[in-house]
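for ur thesis appendix - Protein odr-4 homolog. copy paste whatever u need, i formatted it the way the template wanted (i think)
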Amino acid sequence: MGRTYVVEEAVGQYLSDLSTKLKPYVTGLLIGQCSSQRDYVIRAVRTPPKEEQNEININPSKLSSIDEEWVTAHASQVSRMLPGGLLVLGVFIIAAPELAKDSQNALRKLIFSVEKSVTKRRLWKPAEEEVSDRAALQVCSATKKIVCRTYDVQDPKSSAKPADWKYQSALSACWLTLDCTVNVNIHIPLLATSPNHDLEKNTKNGLNRWSKQIEDSVFLINGQVKDNDAELLEGLKKLRGNIQSSTQFSDVKVLTQLSQGSSRRSTATVQVCSGSINLKGAVKCRAYIHNNRPKVKEAIQALKRDIINTLSDRCEILFEDLIINEGLDKKNFEREYRVLPQRLFVPVAGSSVMLSDYKFRDEAAGEIQERFLEMLDQAVQAEDIHIAEEANTGYCFLFLSHLACVVLWFCFVFFSIQV
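the 3d part is after this line
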């Protein structure tokens, strides 16, 4: 038996509206959450048209003309705007009846390309038991008939499997929210033996080491360490089988474990450095979890990934901005502070879920509104933009220094005595 996709009713209306457009086909992304029993689709987002298509009104009539690179670039941008617990679950094509025969081949190519694009940026690896099926949704623009199939993205030779597509009203109206603030203080040395530093690459390597600390951290939910297999809602008052929509697990604390233990001894390595990168500050993190008897491990996993993603994404956005506006690859920094972009959240109508984005301090609300309209096909009012990190509560900043230094590396080595 195939997977079941429980879908927000508004998604069905959105797809129906897109099918009335006078175009041979429309492609897009499906956004939602995976669980062991079923998957949840809360948003569908069409692929934005390219500028040249807008200007001269190009309407390609064959699916072979789909710009795969453009679709995957859109998926990468959208994945940055998803808080913990949400991901790109699949792709859809709305096509005229004469293109139906080619739709599944096109969907298969897009699914694997999109998955490759959104996963190559991640600093975390999926767990072995995680769902690796992704949805391929085919909609006929004339009859509105829907065919949903899945492909296992871990298997390049995977064949299509049938899946159920079921609509439900107010699907994510009462999803659970987990919030936390994580204090960051990461020191990344630039070794003197590597004179031509790739700052972005060095930063990513440093974040890779830090992400392993987050993976090994202990999470307190409402001041308690809970068993991974326990139900998240255990002991909480429920309302008609669902937790009240106003309830949030706002008191989530992250405790980073010390690597030293009684069974380890330490050694040190001295390395001469020509500079360093320091990431320091506080970042707001958030994850959303479905309310169908979620497990503690699902919630913690979603929040861990948001912590890792949000810092990695901010650094990526900063370097992109520096390269575009200042030519980072040619600039020789000596000592400079750079404030990482702030996080913001925007509500989704009829849902407790909010989508995310990032802004620099000099970025106007109009630019954010344009980005949401282009990337998520969502009109946003200026008053609905909620800045998560205000200036007086702390930014996260990046400090670049090309002054010589010496770094003392400590590593801990396991050893055993055999008698």
